[in-house]
């Protein structure tokens, strides 16, 4: 018989997993982590040059400030790992974590569905096992079964499984005489190995998101000053806005999106008719803000010169959590010819390199695909078949109430699937809310109402941005937190004066329990 280790199993020990473990620590959860350390993407999905895309104070736990939080520099991935390590030590979280323990299957072993006859989602800890989890010891390869009442999925949307483009038959990587790898494999290389891979080589980096941009800069830096140094070609399909830093025409970035007054301009789910009308009347201001930022970005960076100016408004990228910080040196390397941009909607391999949709061919020694990750597959692979259809809407978005509970899946929570501009805070506040739900200090609405709320969030995203596959709440994150505060019995208005309530940015510190109002 499968042993019962704990009432609650948390899968994954990245930012979300440790946030959930901390908030649920009074239940002595067991945390299964596939690797030998905490930190998730910051350990396994980062290059030498990977940095946080915001100042550290925007990426901190409410009850554990960064030691040097006033430092406005964006911390490196090593500094983030150090911070997460000290968080785990401070709250003694490692005692819950089983490292090198990869969950390979989850089986539903109860006969109770998520919703009883009353149409209500049941309690999360029903007093009997609901899930059987198969866990592989990654060192010995042995599998052990465990039974738990509840599972918290924190395996992350990024990392672990590479998303690769599809190619016409016979025109894929097998055709290419050089080396092909995904950015995930590049992250596994040591400093010297990574240098050797790109030094003096003709490198193509596929993609134009954060991983691709950082990789191109790293490749250019390796070849800087080298006589035999070659350029790095970025193969770009879709464009998104990038920002150089957190100031726009002398104004801090938060001024436009992270205050109550700025978010008031944006549509939010289930708003009143009056609010809809106000949003409509104020929409020229909203569009003006987007244009204002676009004008700054095109003035500050040679986006037009390199054909990197997107056609769509900045706001659509912000509303879909697609904004990436452009490293300061990117355009210097481009001006020096060390980074070359090649736009192509389709491409495939030939023996010597890449063939583009305009018929041209380029020779390469190394092709690195920074084409993203397959988070859906990661989840599907371990999920019981009878629940897989509930995991994603056809649009690609995961249906999660408060970004945490899937109304159709019993005794399970998800942390780390809803995105915003500060994902640590997003995961933490949901973990606080989840712990109260587990302890029955708050009650979920009927399933029908939860589904309505989720659908409404999806509709808002669809109306706001064409990139609505990700569940992103960045334009109404304060309202999302307000609703969770109300459900937890907290005062959603967290500031001391009406002025700061309206004009100062909301961050994790506003939700510190010791300042709970
Ligand atoms: C390159 C990059 C840069 C980013 N920059 C920012 C940024 O600047 N700001 C920001 O807010 N967000 C950023 N993000 C988003 C980032 O993903 C989140 O901030 C956050 O770190 C996600 O944490 P997580 O715990 O949800 O997922 P992950 O960090 O992916 O952690 C998941 C954990 O689960 C483990 N796991 C996976 N499968 C299993 C299994 N089957 N069994 C057991 N364990 C398993 C993994 O080993 C991993 O440790 C960035 C992401 C990437 C990839």
Q: Can you give a write-up of this model?
A:
By secondary structure, this protein is of the alpha/beta class. It folds into two domains: 4-159 and 374-511, FAD/NAD(P)-binding domain (3-Layer(bba) Sandwich); 173-244 and 301-369, FAD/NAD(P)-binding domain (3-Layer(bba) Sandwich). Helix content is 32%, strand content 15%. It is built from 17 helices and 20 strands. It has a five-stranded parallel sheet, covered by helices on one side. A five-stranded parallel sheet has the order 8-19-9-10-15. Strands 4-5-6 form a three-stranded antiparallel sheet, with no helix packed on it. Strand 1 (8-11), helix 1 and strand 2 form a beta-alpha-beta unit. Helix 1 (15-23) packs parallel to helix 14 and helix 14 runs parallel beside helix 16. The termini are far apart. The protein binds flavin-adenine dinucleotide (FAD). Residues 11-17, 32-35, 40-41, 45-46, 50, 52-54, 59, 102-103, 154-156, 158-160, 210-211, 382, 416, 422-424 line the site of flavin-adenine dinucleotide.
End-to-end distance, in Å?
A: 47 Å
Which ligands, by name, code or SMILES, are bound? flavin-adenine dinucleotide
Instruction: Identify the CATH homologous superfamily of the largest domain.
Output: FAD/NAD(P)-binding domain
Biggest sheet descriptor: 5 strands, parallel
- The level 1 CATH classification of the largest domain is Alpha Beta
Q: Give the CA-based shape.
A: globular
Task: Name the poorly predicted regions.
Answer: none
User: Number of helical segments?
Assistant: 17
Report the C-alpha radius of gyration, rounded.
23 Å
The helicity comes to 25-40%
Mean pLDDT: 92
Report strand order across the widest sheet: 3-2-1-7-20
Strands, count: 20
CATH architecture of the largest domain: 3-Layer(bba) Sandwich
Structural class: alpha/beta
CATH topology of the largest domain: FAD/NAD(P)-binding domain
